[in-house]
Design brief:
Layout: E1 4-5, H1 9-13, E2 21-24, E3 29-33, E4 36-37, E5 40-41, E6 44-45, E7 48-49, H2 59-70, E8 73-74, E9 80-81, H3 89-95, H4 102-110, H5 119-124, H6 131-137
Antiparallel strand pairs: 1-3, 2-3, 4-7, 5-6, 8-9
């Protein structure tokens, strides 16, 4: 935190970007509050300034989604179908991505998934089969 003298408030207010604000403390100091996100994407942490409305495709998560679909066949209705169990425990967990709700899969490919949702989070999560319950379990906003 950087505490600045209260008299600088007027000078600072003209230089604020969207989402930034000045808070005045009881001790006569003010501070500039910056909106930051610290998402974990593919094992790398990054600091992103500003609002979180921009898309951010996660190549690791997208590759895992593609791998999951490569392990499935399709039935007559186009739904994923597993004909044999994957050999490794890792692939068994990745396979669950093929059974995510279609809107969740589209959002992942478009990079519109919540900032906290990456492959590690999905691998740790208990993913129910019901699509509405999947959204709840993964922290998906309506």
């Amino acid at each position: 935190m950087l505490a600045l003298p209260h008299r600088l408030r007027g000078q600072l207010s003209g230089h604020l970007a969207d989402g930034e604000r000045i808070e005045v403390g009881d001790d006569g100091h003010c501070m500039v509050v910056l909106p930051l996100r610290l998402p974990l994407r593919g094992g790398r942490r990054s600091v992103e300034a500003g609002q979180s409305d921009a898309t951010s495709p996660d190549p690791v998560l997208i590759a895992a989604l593609r791998r999951a679909h490569a392990m499935t066949a399709r039935d007559a209705t186009g739904q994923p179908l597993v004909t044999a169990a994957p050999q490794s425990p890792y692939n068994r967990k990745v396979l669950r991505l093929a059974f995510l709700a279609p809107d969740i899969q589209r959002a992942i490919i478009a990079g519109r998934q919540p900032a906290h949702l990456n492959l590690q989070a999905i691998m740790r999560a208990e993913i129910p089969l019901g699509w509405d319950r999947q959204r709840e379990a993964l922290g998906w906003e309506a």
